[in-house]
Amino acid sequence: MASSAGVALNLGSPPSEKLARGNFILWKTHVLPALRGAQVTGLLDNFDAAPPKTVEVTKANKTTAQEPNPLYGHWIAEDQQVLSYLLNSMSPEILAQVVGRDSTFELWTTINNLFASQSQSRITNLRIAITNTKKGTMSSSAYMAKMKSLGDELAAAGLPVSDPEMVDYILAGLDRDYDSVVAAIGAVKNSITADDLFAQISAFDQRMEMLGDSSSGGFHTSANAVYRGHGSSRSRSYRGRGGRGRDRSGDRGDRQPSPSNGSGGFRGRPRQQQQQQVREQHDFPECQICLKHHPVGARICWWRYEENDQEEKEAHAVSYGVDTNWYADSAATNHITGELDKLTMREKYNGGDQIRTASGSGLGNKENNS
């Protein structure tokens, strides 16, 4: 029944988040505790219906008359305070749809009818969300907070999620990195709470973070650089001038497609023409690079060094972190280093071998490699 101790109700301030299209369940969760505290929830379902406005009173002369009912005055005072509290907690777009509702019961009924279908859709979406939510790139704390929020919304809608169900939902959303945690929990006979699960996941994350920090600084392969100005890699064996190539023997490809005669084969040059070409080639200066005879000498040699070739090799060099620590190795017979202060005993290398670095440059004994 409605409180009859006094007319003034202590409902507190209306919720800061006004009732709108998408937050009916949360709004209802904020409003109901205040109404229960004031003991006026009977006004919502009309359990505390309005008493008669007047009552029949018998006077001293034994006549009857209608007089105002004092209970109705108390009821109307409480009802209008609750009505005002609810209206103040609604957004303008919702207020426009409840104009003309003069009692708490009328207002509450209209609101529930307005959001009934939307509430059911919201519950369905929440159940789908809590089932399909994955941790992905979220941190463990953000993932657990999101799952807890979905569980709280379902509870507010009248479908609370039990601890075992929440644990199953959380474990289903973890990726393969947490397989060891899932296996450990599956081996436990006693049920685990969602809070305990969060503690285990947090401890696992801290452990993996420590292991990751201790193993950092290893070998890192750089992405292959794209050749500049080339659609594909080049070979030094062929330079492709005039559609003809040259192999290592220095001979040009003299074979050409024969005229279209249906055979699809090749026809060689006449022997006399080939002999004349050899005599003409010997009239050319000898190349200092390939020792062949061709016009202008080394300037157009197929084996001439090109700077672009070195750039292409360097483009594929791998970058790696240098480990400055020194480790004893009893199986090693020789050591090399670019920092002589690392060696207490050292001896100059007099051999002819060379060491190739990742960039393609060579290091060794200059005297023996000159």
- N-to-C span: 109 Å
| Secondary-structure element string | HEEHHHHHHHEEHHEEH
Query: Helices and strands: which structural class?
Result: mainly alpha
How many beta-strand segments? 6
Which percent range describes the beta-strand content? 5-15%
Taken from the alpha-carbon principal axes, the silhouette is elongated
Mean pLDDT: 71
- Alpha-carbon Rg, integer: 45 Å
| Oligomerization state | single chain
> Biggest β-sheet: count, sense, barrel?
2 strands, antiparallel
Poorly predicted residue ranges: 1-5, 215-268, 315-320
Largest sheet, spatial ordering of strands: 1-2
Q: Helicity, in percent? A: 25-40%
Number of helical elements: 11
Structure description:
The chain is mainly alpha-helical. Among the domains are: about 10-55 and about 65-130, no CATH class; about 135-210. About 40% of the residues lie in helices and about 5% in strands. The chain is built from 11 helices and 6 strands. The strands form 3 sheets. A two-stranded antiparallel sheet has the order 1-2. Strands 3-4 form a two-stranded antiparallel ribbon. Strands 5-6 form a two-stranded antiparallel sheet. A hairpin with a 5-residue loop joins strand 1 (about 55-60) and strand 2 (about 65-70). Helix 4 runs antiparallel to helix 5. The chain is elongated, with a radius of gyration of 45 Å. Mean pLDDT is about 70; it is low at about 1-5, about 215-270 and about 315-320.
